[in-house]
Amino acid sequence: MLKSFSKLMTACVAVAALATPSLSVADDWFPSAYGEGDEIGAANLLSDSLALEASKLVTNGKVYALGIETNSATPAFAPRGFKIYIVQPDQQAGQTMGPNKMTYNDDVVEGWFGVGTQIDGLGHLGIDNVYYNGYKASGFATPNGLTKLGIEKVPPIVTKGVLLDMAAYYGVSRMEKGQAINSADIKAAAKAQGVSISKGSVVLLHTGWMTMLDEDPVAFASGAPGLGRDGARYLASLGVVAIGGDSTALEAVPHEEGSGNYEVHQILLAKNGVYILENIDSRELDADKAYEFMFVLSPAKITGAVQMIINPVAIR
Questions:
Q1: Separation CA 178–CA 230 (nearest Å)
Q2: pLDDT tens digits for the chain (316 residues)?
Q3: Phi then psi for 46, rounded to 5 degrees?
Q4: What is the pTM of this model?
Q5: What is the arrangement of strands in the sheet containing 307-309, beginning at the earlier edge strand?
Q6: Burial of 90 by CB count in 10 Å (0-12 exposed, 13-18 middle, 19+ buried)?
Q7: 229-237 and 183-193 are packed helices; what angle lies between their axes, rounded to 10 degrees?
């Protein structure tokens, strides 16, 4: 399945590259508002006081796991894949260790960190080889890891989370592939739900697309509704730390007319230092109408990694 999906996505990206323009690096988007040399972007907005305020949103202690399972069948952007191997070192032919006959299992992973529920670090996507805060790929992207903007730099994210039920706003259970969410819709949905998006918060967009994962995994990863360019600029202007969606890309795929390839990623990651969370399973949160909650995420500190598989938690 992954091989056929890989061919499909490679073809789609190739066609899109021919049909859409690229962003110019001439725009005045670096140095970052957080200062020359900064590597954590909007995470600078996090604070002890924000974590304390978020804790006050916990009223019944219910905990929601927002990650999906990651395995060899998990749909992913081509050519990504994931494989786990279980090994029993020095235990061939039933051997044991010591007088107490100790045995153990270990695991070896061959795969990509951009599979399943994931956080995109600021070194993931740039504009003409220039990334967040003006870092050039030639100066920090090495075969052995990023020397700048690595995922190990991301601090624990403990802050207010806001879920926007965009599917309900549009009056559907699942939005259409390629349907873009922009500022007017975000404002209206937030108003209808009675929630506010404050500086330093995390916003999750519920489109209903996660139900497609169970119905048709290939279709799930071949496109999705999601954030549009205007919506990305609007949320970034509010000072959010991260934006998550219930699809493989967060943004609408196919992209909006006139959009460049994954331009929403460029707007958020490169230009504003806002983190992207993909494949967020918001179904249980949405079923409970849990629109405001304490959000907790601390990525594994793999030195020089671009992205990371995650299982963020919402508590209310």
A1: 15
A2: 444 444 444 444 443 333 333 444 556 899 999 999 999 999 999 999 999 999 999 999 999 999 999 999 999 999 999 999 999 999 999 999 999 999 999 999 999 999 999 999 999 999 999 999 999 999 999 999 999 999 999 999 999 999 999 999 999 999 999 999 999 999 999 999 999 999 999 999 999 999 999 999 999 999 999 999 999 999 999 999 999 999 999 999 999 999 999 999 999 999 999 999 999 999 999 999 999 999 999 999 999 999 999 999 999 9
A3: -70, 150
A4: 0.91
A5: 63-65, 313-315, 292-297, 157-165, 202-206, 242-245, 275-278, 118-120, 307-309
A6: exposed
A7: 60
Q: What is each CA distance from 216 to 2, 104, 221, 248, in whole angstroms?
A: 13, 37, 9, 14
User: Do 297 and 313 touch, CB atoms closer than 8 A?
Assistant: yes
Which of 144, 189, 167, 183 is CA-nearest to residue 305? 144
Tokens representing residue 284 in the block: 């249980």
Q: Domain of 198?
A: 2-315
Inter-residue contact 197 to 236 (CB < 8 Å): no
CATH number, residue 74 = 3.50.30.50
Phi, psi for residue 270 in degrees, rounded to 5: -70, -50
| Domain total in the chain | 1
In the numeric block, the tokens 């949320």 are attached to 235
Cis peptide leading into residue 155 (ω within 30°): no
Return the closest-CA partner of residue 105 out of 89, 117, 84.
89
